[in-house]
Amino acid sequence: MQHSEGSVGLGQTDALHPRGGQDGQLEGPRAPSSGPRVLLRNLAGQDWVVLGLHLYLNVRMFALPSSPEVSTARAYTFGLLSAVLFVLLLTRGQMMGAGPLRSAIYRFGLFIPTVSTYFAMRHVMRALDPVLLDAPLLAIDRALFGETPSLLMEPLVTPLSVEFFAFFYYGYYALLGTHLFGTLLFDDGRRAYELLFGAAWVVAVGHCVYTLVPGVGPYAHCADLFTKPLEGGFWWRQVLDAVTAAGAALDIFPSLHTAYPSFLALHSLRYRKTSPYRYSVIPVCIIATVIVISTMFLRWHYAIDVVAGLLVAYSAGSVASWAYDRFDSDEARAQQRARQPAGAAERQPAWEPLMPAGMSRPDYVWLIGVLSVHLLVIVLASVLGARAH
Q: What is the pLDDT of residues 94-105, one digit of tens each?
């Protein structure tokens, strides 16, 4: 990845300092080296996607009549938007100098508020108080498949099968976390661009469409039609606790439990000839497939939710690839430089380097190993703690 500008101190600008031109004449004022204008110049594709999500949610919330639930939702959505704008002004606006610190603040300052919209959606959906669309979604399932898969798979329901699918359903978070954090910390180039842009696309499209197609899912809408209750063990309780504690409750269309694993599987297939995907592609595809089935087996989603999730996954990879070729490939950046006036500052790379340039492959392996051990300890401690309670 390229470094496109030198270190710029907090709030520094040289816009008012004239420079000597040809024949001793003074040139006009230079463009500012930091601030809102620089921010707009440097915004990358994923920045626009994330801003679009937060702006959409804020417009929806501030267009509603005031109420206690609406006020809570506004606080969440405006707080997340403010956090994103602050981080972008610091980093894309070059209020901070270039370097690993700016790269880290950008990566996690953009990532955390975007992921946090998951927790805000519970309040957003309550504030919207929408008309539920379960009936037409169920009708589509019946028109396409004869019945919704949750009912078709009911004869397979046993405590063992519930626990099996619950384990993979809950494993969604580990699958997503390892790929996102691994890419944020260790990857770069086109491969990292496509995964991180695509991940932002999935969450943005998914959360926006949730507000347009709300529903509770088969477990509630078809409750009178099921004859077997879902009963499992530890992992089923973990799933219920996670959904109850943080889920939006009305977030079924599209299925992001389908979209994210499918996107990661498609990404793994695309880069299956490179490490580490040459080793992980088969397990990722298997895990993604079981997670998709689990969303219907555990009665959270209709089949049409899954189809929509697959379309979101495919669109994420396609748009990410197009955006890279159009704006951030070496060829695209060369064309941008050719169109710029002489001496004009170059646009920031979409993802500035995080790790020092001198790090060797053994250094990366060592760091990944240490972080993996720490993650394993945290997971084991959480599981043992949950069992103790």
A: 888 888 888 989
DSSP-assigned letters across all residues of 303-321: HHHHHHHHHHHHHHHHHHH
Cα(351)–Cα(349) distance, integer angstroms: 5
Pairwise CA distance, residues 330 & 334, whole Å: 6
CA distance 64 to 57: 11
Both 229 and 141 in one domain: the answer is: yes
Q: What is the pLDDT of residue 4?
A: 41
Residues 225 and 362 reside in one and the same domain: no
Q: What angle do CA 122, 212, 176 make, to 5 degrees?
A: 55
CA–CA distances in Å: residue 254 to residues 106, 203, 296, 298, 345 = 28, 10, 13, 16, 41
Range of the domain at 377: 358-389
The verdict on 61 and 161 lying in the same domain is yes
Which residue type does 151 have? Answer: L
Same domain, 381 and 314: no
Nearest to 235 by CA among 150, 168, 154, 157: 168
Which pLDDT does position 323 carry in this prediction? 93
Q: How many domains does the chain have?
A: 2
User: Please, what is the angle between helix 234-246 and helix 361-388, to 10°?
Assistant: 100
Q: Which residue reads 């949750």 in tokens? A: 150
Enumerate the H helices of the chain as residue ranges.
36-42, 45-62, 68-91, 100-128, 134-145, 149-152, 159-186, 189-210, 218-221, 234-246, 256-270, 277-297, 303-323, 330-339, 361-388
Residue 205's CB is within 10 A of a number of other CB atoms, namely 22
How does residue 383 score in pLDDT terms, banded at 50, 70 and 90? low
- State the pLDDT at residue 336: 80
388 & 318 share domain? no
pTM summary value = 0.82
The answer for residues whose C-beta is within 8 angstroms of residue 241's C-beta and 6 or more apart is none
Say yes or no: 145 and 197 in one domain.
yes
Q: Convert the pLDDT of each residue in 197-225 to its tens digit.
A: 999 999 999 999 999 999 999 999 999 99
Residue 70 has pLDDT above 90, yes or no: yes
Is the separation of the CB atoms in 51 and 357 below 8 Å?
no
